[in-house]
Design brief:
The structure holds two protein chains of two kinds.
Chain A lengths: L1 H14 L8 H4 L4 H14 L4 E3 L16 E9 L10 H7 L31 H5 L10 H11 L1 H4 L43 H4 L7 E10 L4 E9 L8 H5 L4 H4 L3 E5 L7 E5 L4 H30 L1 H15 L10 H5 L8 H12 L12
Antiparallel strand pairs in A: 1-2, 2-3, 3-4, 4-6, 5-6
Chain B lengths: L9 E4 L1 H15 L6 E8 L3 E3 L6 E3 L3 E4 L15 E11 L2 H6 L2 H19 L8 E8 L4 E11 L5 E9 L6 H13 L6 E7 L2 E6 L3 H4 L8 E6 L11 H12 L6 E7 L14 E7 L13 E4 L10 E4 L1 H4 L1 H7 L2
Parallel strand pairs in B: 1-5, 6-7, 12-13
Antiparallel strand pairs in B: 2-6, 3-4, 7-8, 8-15, 8-16, 9-14, 10-11, 10-12, 13-14
The chains are: A alpha+beta, B alpha+beta.
GO cellular component, one term (chain A): cytosol
Pfam family, one (chain A): Autophagy_act_C
Keywords (chain A): Autophagy, Cytoplasm, Protein transport, Transport, Ubl conjugation pathway
Amino acid sequence: MQAIQSHLFAVREYLSPVLKESKFKEHGRITPEEFVAAGDFLVYKFPVWTWEKGDASKSRDFLPADKQYLVTRGVPCLRRATSLAYTDADEDAERLLNFTDSGAEGDEWVETHAGRKPNMDSAQNAGVIDDIPDLDGPQDDDDVAARIGGLSLASSGGAGTTETPDLDDIPDMEEEDLEAGDEATAAPKTTPAVIDASQVEVAKGNLLQVRTYDVMITYDKYYQTPRVWLIGYDENRTPLTPSQIFQDISADHANKTVTIEPFIHSASLQAASVHPCKHASVMKKVIERMNNSVVEEQLAQRKPSGSTTPAAKDTKKKWPFGRKSSGIGKEEKSGEDEEIEGMRVDFYLVVFLKFIASIVPTIEVDSTTSF
Amino acid sequence: MPIVQFTPFSSIIQPDFWHKLTNLKIDVLKLSDDALTVSGSYSTGRTVKDRESGQEIALGCTIALGDGAFDEREFGVPQGSVRANGTFKNYNTIEDFKAADKTSLFNQEAEKIWNQILTTRSTALLTHFLLITYADLKKYKYYYWFAFPAFVAKPAWELNGEWKGAGGEFSSSQLGSIHTQLKLQKEPLAFFLVRTDTQDVSISPVEEYETFFANTPSSAQTIAFVDPSAAPDSPGWPLRNLLAYLRALYPATTSTVRVLCWRDEHPVVEGLEWRSRFGVLEVGGAEAAAAVTRPQAVGWEKNPQGKLGPRAADLAPMMDPKRLAEQAV
């Protein structure tokens, strides 16, 4: 099932044309060139991110060979998203991106906490589920939810015995006599206890559990947006199981948009991925918001300079004519529009990370606090 | 004076490493259990501020192996990291893995590092490690055990005073200059020397110890290394072998050393403190002649239970097609 679906997606992505024209303000989508530009900016500003080549056989020809995807490794994750407190006050505090002025609740796509509000139930969110292409065809949402509920460790507590790596399987070969005690070896400050999934509720707030994640950002040609992939390690640095990864994803998304899929730049690697079908519309809203504030800021900066130096204003007025021939479309209406560029596409990934940070609230993907 | 305590390396193996090993085992190695060279990398120690409690949490002193590990020549060191090579040995059965003569394997590696120090004076092998594995390909389970050989100083190094922020010893512009010079190196330097000349500082590879520190007062000489540890009071594991190296080759001038634990991958923002640490280490006793015999070495990695034993990675949930199908929605 999964394999067929993945293949279908792969074929569909292969067939869809490369987006040529920039549409990031209108649709929230970006072209591969813009992805590279935004990626370059991200790498420049936040050097924890680097470009990767990936598997040569899987490289995409619309991206530069040495800039196939972005990666940052060892991102700490101090708590489980499932162990975040669910008080009403916290909910208000944590709702990072609420785009709608009208307060139409259905649009609050990126709540960091599972909504307790009655309007966030599955009936309201049915549209979200429908938007994920599913080979099963029309399906009862409750059925889907129930099946996922059965899989989800986070909600069902102790069901995780089979998923937890069974450490008893390690061959009994402790060899304490290999080396004598060494006075210069720093003792670990805290003995990292093996915390299995069923204990998470008990152990919440326990800072010993420092999981880390490798986070990758690829470009999805079909949805024309970036796409995020996660590979996790537990506090003992062994890879996390899918259900353990779901503990770090806000409940809204763990059950709907995050799945384990073959990583597109590797022949065999599996990673958790946030399905990008909603990214464009969310990004569009965020960008609109930010663009307005950026434009206002730029206007405010411009006004004083314009009034003090009339000569400069005159030269600016002339610019539209000068640039008409260069074929920049819509921005020719007036000198004002010409000057005010608004948000540049370079910031796209920075904004994107803010959005992703709300899906995975406890993974510190967003190192961009200065923005 | 307190004995200097070093934060041991801990290994982190990315799943791609196991994928590569699986392919390699099936297509290339087959039943061979010859030793191979693998490449890993480590970077400066990091801390993260907990948003809720405001505490700084030190992340582990890790050395990472990824999918490029088996490709010695092509291996690209991630930005801001330095390379560490190791000897890799995969066993065909769990019995072989259990029965392997670990002491002799370990001593072999330690011997290799020691000989390299004495013969070539190169620092390239100071972070050399040993990795033994057994891969249960049917169950997607991998058993592995790392050793990071480090020479034991007898008597032990002692700390004169205490570890302090590097900002207390160097000016911010000097540290900035070190950062810039490090970035300009063609190959990232895991170990380097710092010379303070009145206002300015210059750095150099450790191999040039004699020429670089000639005519330099000892108070202007500092040895430095990329420190994967983030714990404020214990430098990372690589320093042990650097100290052993200096004691072996330059016993006359290294009974007291000024150490800079380099932890600033990124230049600090104005007003914040540099995270690098500085301390003065002393070694007692005048046993300079002991350099000829190889010191004892330690460094097997402990398992999650804190015992000397192998670790296991269970990738079935991420690799087994059956398990993936169950997960698929």
